[in-house]
Amino acid sequence: MFFFRKKEAKPADFTATVKKVDPALSGQVAELKQQLETAGGARRLELLNELGGKLFVLKQTDEAIHYYEMSIQKNRTLGKAYTDLLKLYNVKRREAAERNDDEQLQQYLDKIDALMKLSKDVIRGLE
């Protein structure tokens, strides 16, 4: 006889997981935004990615998307910004589908398609 363990149900999305957020994280976000105003070059790119990551953890989806999009416009490479942005677009797409907002649903489907095209272009070396 075969004995199988029941698989544990996984949360539907990252918003379903309950994590305790470090209260200092909001202060760090404010500091990073202030540093971003004067930063340039590679440091600016680092700050954009760090801001996107911290806002992602704080579940401030729209703001995280904004900083990650700025990062990808500056540096068209695959990495944490790309993967997190794809996750955030899927969250927004799912929210739009739940609200039956076809216009916003299509907007995020188009953004996902553009991000996938970017990944193919980067892999092919076409940038």
The gist of it:
By secondary structure, the protein is mostly helical. Helix content is 69%, strand content 0%.
Description:
The structure is a single chain. By secondary structure, this protein is mainly alpha-helical. It has 5 helices and no strands.
What is the count of structural domains? 1
Return the CATH architecture.
Answer: Alpha Horseshoe
Q: Residue share in helices?
A: 55-70%
- Rg over C-alpha atoms, rounded to the nearest angstrom: 17 Å
Q: What is the CATH topology?
A: Serine Threonine Protein Phosphatase 5, Tetratricopeptide repeat
Strand pairing plus helix content: what structural class? Answer: mainly alpha
Share of residues in strands: under 5%
Low-confidence stretches: 14-18
| CATH superfamily placement | Tetratricopeptide repeat domain
List SSEs in N-to-C order.
HHHHH
The tally of strands reads 0
Discrete helix count: 5
- Mean pLDDT, nearest integer? 82
How far do the termini sit from each other? 55 Å
Largest sheet: none
In one word, what is the shape?
Answer: globular
Descriptive labels:
single chain; 127 residues; mainly alpha; Serine Threonine Protein Phosphatase 5, Tetratricopeptide repeat; 5 helices; globular; Tetratricopeptide repeat-containing protein; TPR-like_helical_dom_sf
